[in-house]
Amino acid sequence: MIGRYANPVIAGMHPDPSICRVGEHYYLACSSFEYFPGVPIFHSRDLVHWELIGNALDRPSQLPLDNAPSSGGVYAPTLRHHDGRFWLITSNVPHGGTLLVTSTDPAGPWSEPRTLPGIHGIDPDLTWDDEGNCWCTYAGIEQVRIDPATGESLSRPRRIWAGTPGAQWPEAPHLYKIGDLWYLLIAEGGTERGHGISVARGPSPNGPFEPCPGNPILTHRSTDQPIQNTGHGDLVQAHDGSWWMVFLGTRPRGGTPGWHTLGRETFLAPVAWVDGWPVIDDVAPEMQADLLPQHPFPEPPARDDFDGADLHPRWISVRSRPGATWSLKDRPGWLTLHGRGGSLDDPAVSFIGRRQEHLSCRVRALIDASAGRGGLAVRLDEQHHYEIEAGDGEVCVRVRIGPVVQWRTARPEPTGPVVLRIETQASGPSPDHPRQEPDVVRLGFESSDGRFVVLDELDGRYLSTEVAGGFTGRVIGMYAAAGTIRFDWLSYDPTPDTP
């Protein structure tokens, strides 16, 4: 069925996608870095529509992150289905090493991790050959045969391909048996504008490998495409026999050099086979392809009233979420946060947020700050965040950009609970001037008649990867800076990119 679909297929900070198929169902995992719970797991019936069904690493025993720096933590999982089980291998950087978890249900629960002490690199991949041997290949394109039941290495590391001569960072390997040959897919060029995907093939999982003469098979480097940084892909054959690739990319906006604020997102492209090699055309925000029968999921509610017994898996926290710092039971129907750490500058801040998924959006929350200080924040890392904070009789805007901290504006706090609000508004796709911002971020509160009282309007570039560095994207959410803060509800709504 020829149809159209929109890219990205999973928006917001969902990089390094890895995919597997079980019958007519598809499952996908992404990196999660310093956020807990880790490794979001998605389900699809058509490769276009995806539903978040859980997080693979959702218990503190699985994912110690207290010592992880921002943009550290969980890197590049590989998700596979073999012998009736799901297998997920990933790295916890810099101190957690390589770990492997399994489950019979991709929604969880997943096992306690097995560590793989013989794997000394990120981006680990798993594959099994026809004799039942399990191979782990990782960045630098080194390979070790392992016992997946124990994590023990059964061979010495061996480099199986160096990638394209002169290309930096050969990483993100994935190995596939397709027909009589083994195909080795890798990323090269770094995950910035030079990113790309190359492929080689050989007679066995450990080579020798012949590079594709058309490498890189996917890159948007040195182009004016609206989607950039394309790379780190994974192949899947659909149940109708067609082939597809998921991969990461970004949507930079504004002037020079272009700033992406949402992080690296998951994109989808059809794959053709020509002379035994995979071929991918340029990837656009709107794609036309021969699609599988469509199975969209109901749109998730824009508003969370915190009436459930637990938080939805979309909600993430910075490094950990100790039970003593939050509750859905202290005041039923409200999310209660207890302060630990005085601000978003603190690595252990009490924070629960969600990934920003749209270039332009509106986030609102009803907050009771009568017993403390807290509010809504847009976070990239400890040194780059904006927040609208209530407490101590006032509503104010706080800004952290690198070493500079500034309380920008303040107003007397309205009586009783107050609706705090953050809006992002994307700039146009064609910059009006070389340094045009990617978006503006407006922070304020709502008056009793629902009017948005804007306390500050800030340049969004300072909450972008090009300014802050690292590998993550924006997360918008609720925090407690001191005392006890309660949230009755939070709503997240996309808004038009053109004002």
Describe the secondary structure blueprint for this structure.
Blueprint (H helix, E strand, L loop, with lengths): L1 E5 L11 E5 L2 E5 L5 E2 L1 E7 L6 E7 L15 E10 L2 E9 L3 E7 L10 E2 L9 E4 L5 E5 L3 E6 L4 E2 L4 E2 L11 E8 L2 E8 L7 E7 L7 E2 L6 E2 L8 E10 L5 E8 L14 E10 L2 E3 L6 E5 L12 E2 L12 E2 L7 E2 L7 E4 L11 E6 L5 E21 L2 E8 L2 E8 L2 E9 L5 E9 L12 E8 L5 E8 L5 H4 L6 E20 L5
Antiparallel strand pairs: 1-25, 2-3, 3-5, 4-27, 5-6, 7-8, 8-9, 9-10, 11-12, 12-13, 13-14, 13-15, 16-17, 17-18, 18-19, 18-20, 21-22, 22-23, 23-24, 26-38, 28-29, 29-38, 30-38, 31-32, 31-35, 31-38, 32-33, 33-34, 35-36, 36-37
Description:
The chain is mainly β. Helix content is 1%, strand content 50%. The strands form eight sheets. Strands 26, 28, 29, 30, 31, 32, 33, 34, 35, 36, 37 and 38 form a twelve-stranded antiparallel β-sheet that branches. Strands 11, 12, 13, 14 and 15 form a five-stranded antiparallel β-sheet that branches. Strands 16, 17, 18, 19 and 20 form a five-stranded antiparallel β-sheet that branches. A hairpin with a 2-residue loop joins strand 7 and strand 8. The radius of gyration is 23 Å and the shape is globular. Keywords: Glycosidase, Hydrolase. It comes from Phytohabitans aurantiacus. Belongs to the glycosyl hydrolase 43 family.
